[in-house]
Amino acid sequence: MRCEELLKLLNEYVDGAAAPGTCEEFEKHLAGCNPCQVVVDNIRKTITLYREGQPYELPARFRERLHSILRRRWEEKLGPGRGRARRPS
Ligand SMILES: [Zn+2]
């Protein structure tokens, strides 16, 4: 699994379609990738905080904000453009 695949899974997680932490590939990548650890930690905390005061559903506006936060963090950690297509050289 690569960083961008993990990020995609995270987006699905925010949408309620996947559950990171139960996926072996996800955990394997996470164990060796600090930028992803930071992002996953952040998203889990954010969701937990949000759910404490709310029922389960995450409104679209919240998801959009979360996604843009994730993208920004990604670029801070990996540099602009690094989160997307990474060609084998
Ligand atoms: Zn990664």
Strand content: under 5%
Main sheet overview: none
Radius of gyration: 13 Å
The rounded distance between the terminal residues' Cα atoms is 18 Å
Number of helices: 4
The helix-strand sequence is: HHHH
* Global outline: globular
Low-pLDDT ranges: none
Q: What percent of the residues sit in helical stretches (DSSP H or I)?
A: 55-70%
Structural class: mainly alpha
Q: What is the subunit arrangement here?
A: single chain
Give every kind of bound small molecule, once each. Answer: zinc ion
Overall mean pLDDT: 74
- Can you count the beta strands? 0
Overview of this structure, please?
- The chain is mainly alpha-helical.
- The protein contains 4 helices and no strands.
- The protein is globular.
- The two termini are 18 Å apart.
- Zinc ion (ZN) binds next to α1 and α3.
Which short descriptors sum up this protein?
single chain, 89 residues, mainly alpha, globular, binds zinc ion
Overview in brief:
The chain contains 4 helices and no strands.
